[in-house]
Structure formats: structure tokens, C-alpha cells
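User: Okay, second chain of the day. Same drill as before: sequence in, C-alpha cells out.
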Amino acid sequence: MNTKTKANISKLLVIMGTILFVGGAMSYLRGELSAEQISGIGAMALIFVGAGVGMRKAKQ
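Assistant: Same drill. C-alpha cells below.
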């Protein structure tokens, strides 16, 4: 896998994590999700963002 592909994957992971985080927060504020569901969504968001940032740092 070349560096351009890795960079695109890392960007995608960060974007997906951000969308999960913001979407989960908005759903919680509207009352559509419970606190138990939010903790799982938040954990997944952190995993995606962490993996994306880790791939970027490993590239450098």
C-alpha cells in the first residue's frame, strides 16, 4: 500500500470518527439515544480517530 492510499485511509478514519461523535451527541441531545448507547458510540468514535491519527503519525 503506497503512502497516498494510507493518507486517504487515515483521513477517512478521522472523518468517520468525527461524524460518529457529532452524530451521537446530537442524537443524545434530541433524546433519541440512551446514555448506554452514547458510551458505545463515543468509544467507537475515539477508536476511529485514534487509528486515523496513529496512521498519520506513523507515516511521518
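DSSP finds two helices and no strands in the chain.

User: Thanks, on to the next one.
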